[in-house]
From TrEMBL:
Protein name per the record: Bifunctional diguanylate cyclase/phosphodiesterase
Top-level taxon in the UniProt lineage: Bacteria
Annotated signal peptide: none
Residue intervals of the EAL domain: 24-278
């Protein structure tokens, strides 16, 4: 059909493509500016919960962009743009500084918590991230054991041999590495075994489907089992219902994260949860 329509097809799609590209270019430039304007970009924090006892076992730092005209723009939109343009390297560095500084502020208030930070593979390829984060942590007085770095599965697998030295250096320095969005990419079992990633984060799409589809529930079970054979800790993301939580507890998943427990929120808001130390997750499965 496309062949039949020939040029008409092209004329029809071109304006859409152009406006999409214009928006990407514009957002990228504005994001560059936003990095110098501290009121637009900020980190939110979402608690991670130990599914065995309800204790808060960490927080994940999630970037938020309050655009002056357009309001909140989702990282799902602007992170890929920053990755394409390369801006993610500077942006990722900004995130790292903010997150570690927040850890220090919490330490001063007597709050000790593990911080998970999302890292783009571009940061691993284009900057010497292991040296950078180590010196930053040292300078600020943050123990590497308190920092977890999340990298999405697809990105790791596409660049495995090139990023391996950085991953190994980070692990040796004491940072914990996690595979984010696990299950959506294309890991082979042998690569999974060889990666120095201590944590697997099961993608929220599996958690969402597990209740609807018995096959997906079995897949989650298999992921947890494989993870455990390889001595990894399993985190489920996107837990929204008690039923999902109960299933994941029954499958032996150690940690969970999701709207059921808490949404990503400002540092001030998350403090009260951190001071409390746990979230009430009592149910039959826990008895
Ligand atoms: P991610 O790292 O997989 O983060 C989990 C996403 O799921 C977050 O979306 C979080 O707000 C959302 N989420 C948490 N609980 C639930 C739930 O119960 N249900 C549903 N439906 N969603 C839930 P967010 O904050 O929009 O971030 C999207 C993605 O953007 C992140 O996915 C991550 O890949 C990327 N990202 C965010 N901040 C950063 C950053 O500082 N650096 C890099 N490189 N990427 C980032
Ligand atoms: Mg993440
Ligand atoms: Mg994820
Ligand atoms: Mg994700």
């Amino acid at each position: 059909i496309a062949k039949d329509e020939g040029g008409r097809c092209f004329r029809f799609f071109q304006p859409m493509m152009t406006s999409k590209m214009t928006r990407r270019i514009q957002l990228d430039q504005e994001l560059r500016q936003a990095m110098t304007d501290c009121s637009q970009l900020m980190l939110f924090y979402q608690p991670k919960v130990d599914l065995r006892n309800g204790r808060i076992c960490g927080v994940e730092a999630l970037l938020r962009w309050q655009h002056p005209q357009q309001g909140m723009i989702s990282p799902a939109e602007f992170i890929p743009i920053a990755e394409d343009s390369g801006l993610i390297v500077e942006l990722g560095d900004w995130v790292m500084v903010q997150a570690l500084e927040q850890l220090v502020r919490w330490q001063q208030q007597g709050i000790t918590v593990e911080m998970a930070i999302n890292v783009s593979v571009k940061q691993l390829l284009r900057s010497n991230i292991s040296e950078r984060i180590q010196s930053l942590a040292q300078q600020l007085g943050v123990a590497p054991q308190q920092v977890q770095l999340e990298i999405t599965e697809n990105n790791i697998m596409d660049n495995m041999s090139r990023i391996m030295p950085q991953l190994q250096a980070l692990t040796q320095q004491g940072f914990t590495l996690a595979i984010d969005d696990f299950g959506t990419g294309h890991s082979s079992l042998s690569r999974l075994r060889d990666l120095p990633m201590k944590v697997l984060k099961i993608d929220k799409s599996f958690v969402a489907n597990a209740m609807r589809d018995h096959k997906d529930a079995q897949l989650v079970e298999a992921i947890v089992e494989i993870g455990h054979i390889l001595n990894r800790t399993i985190i489920a993301e996107g837990i929204e219902t008690t039923e999902q939580m109960t299933l994941l507890q029954q499958l032996g998943c150690e940690e969970g994260q999701g709207y059921l427990f808490a949404r990503p929120m400002s540092a001030e808001q998350v403090e009260s949860i951190l001071l409390q130390g746990s979230i009430d997750i009592r149910n039959e499965a826990m008895a």
